[in-house]
Design goal:
By secondary structure, this protein is mainly α. Helices cover about 65% and strands about 0% of the residues. The chain folds into 2 domains: about 1-65; about 65-98. The chain has helices at about 5, 10-15, 20-30, 40, 45-60, 70-90.
Length: about 100
């Protein structure tokens, strides 16, 4: 891989890429189970891991540049709205799964 030596702190990034949760995410990306897009990474449960990988992919010019703060805000907002929706369903006795 020619790209890794050009990155800042290549050795620490290589060790990070070997972590089991990163390996699973990379396998899901390679297998097409997770789209290699900002949106695909945004949907991941382990969002901090996905965000760090997304930063690496942007730095490597694999993904187009995006505003990190906006992506974090979108993630926070989606989680907050889901929590509010779940709280509303509990308080009204309405269950979306029924």
């Amino acid at each position: 891989m020619d790209l890794l030596p050009e990155l800042d702190r290549p050795k620490s990034r290589l060790f990070w890429l070997r972590r089991p949760n990163i390996v699973r995410l990379l396998q899901d990306l390679a297998g097409g189970r997770v789209p290699l897009t900002h949106e695909g990474l945004q949907q991941q449960e382990q969002w901090r891991t996905a965000a760090h990988l997304r930063d690496l992919l942007m730095e490597s010019d694999i993904l187009p540049p995006a505003d990190r703060r906006l992506l974090f805000y979108e993630r926070w907002l989606a989680e907050r709205l889901a929590a509010i929706d779940a709280g509303s369903a509990r308080s009204t006795g309405f269950n979306h799964e029924s």
